[in-house]
Design goal:
One of its GO terms (molecular function) is lyase activity. The chain is 42% helix and 12% strand.
């Protein structure tokens, strides 16, 4: 790998031990990927600290949060004093909501560790956004900007909708990028790797958030880690629709980028989306494919009595919270069903001011932050059957938590929360 003079100085240890270990990790990582150089980044989203049980134990045994960062962000068995981050860095979702820890069945001792971790990341200069959707609360990279982001649903969103450039980084490479402002120059950082591979021709209207989730789930299974190009759109999608589409495609497959003709910034035309190349395959998406996607995402749903409705994967936007309140205001939840909605902390503050949190709480639900049921493994005790409006959550929640999951529209989920029963069906 070719390093600049500044990179050589960091690699040699002239900028401190932590930076040296970070550069060593990035060079080894880049060489394994075939990268010939590093690229500058001033926007990193990752995770540090010790909210998960194993990491909490490791922290206690090996000397605190510096030990965790050293081992799990820098691949160093030596405990290194970690300096402030060099570039703008944001923290992704955590393992719990400290304000609802008791309801989430999280012990108070864990909350103390969480608070200590917040102080630690603050000392490092990492922004405590604590969300899987940083682009909803102020971290909005621009077209062509090189980033180093973790979190599959966030990676696919900024690559595709914003035109920023990132690969799906891990905890290690993101942590190293925070300290160096560097990331290997490969994959989606390179213009030649951002062209479409598969053409998706829409034979039906894709209108609702649920429609977009089903489309993403179907496409992800088909194209896996390639780049789909969607053509034939009849309505302009908003942010929640594209967010749920990308999250679903990244879950059922490994999609990190897509194009929508006439909508996403690198796809004004078919020729531009494919960079002048021919698609490897043309896939038609109609009623039969939509039905197949619906059946697959609902494969674990059996019992119609719903114990738990979970909304907010990826984290809910203000618009989605508003929609829930339109559906929920003046109603009460079933005594047998709980409703938890997950959102970024900054969005919850706005929802508090707008009165939306009160509407949700008056109905018997809760607006929570910082985590979700799959990441934090937090659910009401005794949950057997859940209802979600996220294809991503329907994909992961049964495997992680051992529950049945129904996928449907937001309206169907709210109906399930109020009645305690699942009555959703594909329209």
């Amino acid at each position: 790998m070719k390093l600049t003079d500044e990179e050589q100085a960091m690699y040699a240890g002239d900028r401190g031990v932590a930076v040296q270990r970070a550069m060593d990790l990035l060079v080894r990582y880049g060489e394994a990927l075939g990268a010939e150089s590093l690229v500058d980044t001033n926007n990193v989203c990752g995770t540090v600290g010790a909210t998960m049980p194993f990491l909490r134990d490791y922290s206690a045994k090996h000397g605190g949060f510096d030990a965790v960062f050293s081992e799990f962000n820098l691949d160093s068995a030596d405990v290194i004093e970690i300096p402030k981050v060099k570039v703008y860095s944001s923290h992704l979702q955590q393992g719990l909501d400290p304000e609802h820890a008791e309801r989430q069945n999280v012990h108070s001792d864990v909350v103390k560790i969480y608070r200590a971790g917040e102080a630690y990341t603050g000392k490092l200069g990492i922004q405590p956004l604590n969300t899987c959707a940083p682009y909803q609360v102020g971290n909005v990279p621009v077209k062509g900007e090189h980033c180093a982001w973790m979190e599959s649903s966030a990676v696919i969103y900024i690559n595709s909708v914003l035109g920023a450039r990132t690969n799906a980084e891990g905890r290690e490479s993101a942590g190293a990028a925070m300290l160096t402002g560097k990331i290997p120059y490969w994959g989606f950082h390179l213009e030649e790797n951002r062209g479409g591979t598969h053409l998706i021709e829409l034979d039906i209207d894709v209108r609702t958030v649920a429609d977009w989730g089903l489309l993403g789930y179907y496409i992800g299974e088909i194209v896996q880690d390639r780049i789909p190009v969607i053509n034939g759109l009849q309505h302009v999608p908003n942010m929640p629709k594209l967010k749920h589409f990308g999250a679903a495609a990244a879950s059922s497959g490994g999609v990190e980028m897509y194009h929508v003709i006439g909508q996403t910034p690198e796809a004004p035309t078919l020729a531009a989306a494919f960079r002048g190349q021919r698609p490897l395959e043309t896939i038609r998406y109609g009623a039969a494919e939509r039905r197949l996607a619906y059946e697959r995402v609902n494969t674990t749903g059996k019992d119609t009595q719903v114990d738990f409705v979970m909304l907010g994967c990826p984290h809910y936007s203000m618009e989605q919270i508003w929609e829930v309140c339109q559906l929920l205001e003046g109603q009460r939840l079933s005594g047998n069903t709980q409703l938890w909605i997950f959102t970024p902390k900054a969005t919850k503050q706005m929802a508090d001011q707008a009165g939306y949190t009160k509407i949700i709480e008056d109905a018997g639900g809760f607006l929570m932050t910082d985590t979700c049921s799959s990441v934090g493994r937090v659910m009401p005790k005794g949950t057997r059957v859940a209802a979600v409006d996220s294809a991503k959550q329907a994909h992961y929640l049964p495997a992680i938590m051992g529950v049945q999951a129904w996928f449907g529209t937001t309206a169907e989920c709210i109906q399930a929360a109020v009645t305690g029963r699942w009555t959703g069906a594909l329209a």
